């Protein structure tokens, strides 16, 4: 997919006269966030997107960040803006998200873009569920008429995921922490997407034979010798025996999320001055 985007950037650049630009705002010194930001910047470089990363001290205020976002909204070199989460507790991440111009909302999480998803209109899609959809298409997983179960109903993953599967004509059920008889529900799923944030929560008994299992979860657990390692929401070793397709953690949806961030940035770049997407 990165090669595809690189080719697209090379084709568009002579007409637009500049490369696409992505601004990632990071506040504080969370090492995991710093690693994610570096990863995004490297991925940008691979496809020819210019990074306009800005790093702020942990005590930076809401008003200063809001001003930065307003400046980037007006910057003609910047096509995508995102605020790396989590933010220090004194900052309101949602309020900052609302300040990003919808056409530069590289994460696809602004209410205008979520509204476009609900309405089935073209627009910037939330990166993680869009990455899941791209992976399912790449592996030629048929969704129409299939039973899809989404575990988790967050605005970041579960809800937009359910809408995207619905848009693809799957019959979708969304489960959450108050769902009863969860295993019975998941056993009916042809496509099971896990986004709960609980290590190895989905066991083989919960999965139908031949199901497609997508593991969105990223959980840091203590491994052998006390070393931290990342695991998903699915008990991979056992579910792998039953599933027809399964995504690994690490790998799988994490890299697809970054790929969709690049895709969104290039999409905004390609929309340029189109009036319909100028809000
Ligand atoms: N791969 C990626 O790039 C990527 C991107 C984003 C997130 N993630 C990972 O995906 C996971 C979910 O992220 P998130 O932001 O959606 O998390 P979140 O906001 O904490 O939401 C978790 C969801 O899971 C539900 N849940 C919790 N315990 C449950 C249980 N026992 N049974 C059924 N449902 C349960 C919650 O239900 P309630 O609504 O009832 O509380 C909630 O809807 C995390 O591990 C996160 O790190 C990965």
UniProtKB/TrEMBL annotation:
The membrane-spanning stretches of this chain are: none
Residue positions annotated to bind NADP(+) are 152-154, 218
SUPFAM superfamilies the UniProt entry points to: Aminoacid dehydrogenase-like, N-terminal domain (SSF53223), NAD(P)-binding Rossmann-fold domains (SSF51735)
- This entry's Enzyme Commission designation comes to 1.5.1.5, 3.5.4.9
MF (Gene Ontology) = methenyltetrahydrofolate cyclohydrolase activity; methylenetetrahydrofolate dehydrogenase (NADP+) activity
Pathway involvement of the protein, from the record: One-carbon metabolism; tetrahydrofolate interconversion
- Any single GO BP term: L-histidine biosynthetic process
Q: Which GO terms describe its cellular component?
A: cytosol
Entries under CDD domains matching the protein: NAD_bind_m-THF_DH_Cyclohyd
Q: Which residues form the Tetrahydrofolate dehydrogenase/cyclohydrolase NAD(P)-binding domain?
A: 126-270
Q: Name one Pfam family in it.
A: THF_DHG_CYH
Q: Which UniProt keywords apply?
A: Amino-acid biosynthesis, Histidine biosynthesis, Hydrolase, Methionine biosynthesis, Multifunctional enzyme, NADP, One-carbon metabolism, Oxidoreductase, Purine biosynthesis
Reaction(s) the record says it catalyses: (6R)-5,10-methenyltetrahydrofolate + H2O = (6R)-10-formyltetrahydrofolate + H(+); (6R)-5,10-methylene-5,6,7,8-tetrahydrofolate + NADP(+) = (6R)-5,10-methenyltetrahydrofolate + NADPH
Residue stretches making up the Tetrahydrofolate dehydrogenase/cyclohydrolase catalytic domain: 2-107
Q: Which family does it belong to?
A: Belongs to the tetrahydrofolate dehydrogenase/cyclohydrolase family.
What does the subunit comment say?
Homodimer.
Q: What is the protein's known function? A: Catalyzes the oxidation of 5,10-methylenetetrahydrofolate to 5,10-methenyltetrahydrofolate and then the hydrolysis of 5,10-methenyltetrahydrofolate to 10-formyltetrahydrofolate.
Name used for this protein in its record:
Bifunctional protein FolD
Organism, per UniProt?
Acaryochloris thomasi RCC1774
**Where is the organism placed in the taxonomic lineage, from the top?**
Bacteria, Bacillati, Cyanobacteriota, Cyanophyceae, Acaryochloridales
């Amino acid at each position: 997919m990165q090669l595809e985007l690189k080719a697209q950037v090379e084709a568009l650049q002579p007409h637009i006269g500049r490369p696409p630009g992505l601004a990632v705002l990071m506040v504080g010194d969370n090492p995991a966030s710093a690693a994610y930001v570096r990863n995004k910047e490297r991925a940008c470089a691979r496809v020819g997107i210019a990074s306009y990363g800005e790093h702020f001290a942990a005590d930076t205020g809401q008003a200063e960040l809001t001003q930065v976002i307003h400046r980037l909204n007006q910057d003609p070199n910047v096509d995508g803006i995102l605020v790396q989460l989590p933010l220090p507790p004194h900052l309101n991440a949602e309020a900052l998200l609302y300040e990003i111009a919808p056409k530069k909302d590289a994460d696809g999480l602004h209410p205008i873009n979520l509204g476009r998803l609900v309405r089935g209109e073209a627009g910037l899609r939330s990166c993680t569920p869009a990455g899941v959809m791209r992976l399912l298409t790449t592996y030629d997983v048929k969704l129409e008429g299939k039973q899809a179960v989404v575990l988790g109903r967050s605005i970041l993953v579960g809800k937009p995921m359910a809408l995207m599967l619905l848009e693809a004509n799957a019959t979708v059920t969304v489960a959450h922490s108050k769902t009863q008889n969860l295993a019975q529900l998941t056993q009916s799923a042809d496509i099971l997407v896990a986004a709960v944030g609980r290590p190895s929560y989905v066991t083989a008994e919960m999965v139908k034979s031949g199901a497609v299992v997508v593991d969105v979860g990223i959980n840091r657990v203590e491994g052998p010798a006390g070393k931290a390692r990342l695991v998903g929401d699915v008990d991979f070793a056992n579910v792998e025996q039953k599933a027809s397709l399964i995504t690994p953690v690490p790998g799988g949806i994490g890299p697809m999320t970054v790929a969709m961030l690049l895709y969104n940035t290039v999409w905004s770049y390609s929309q340029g001055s189109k009036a319909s997407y100028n809000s």
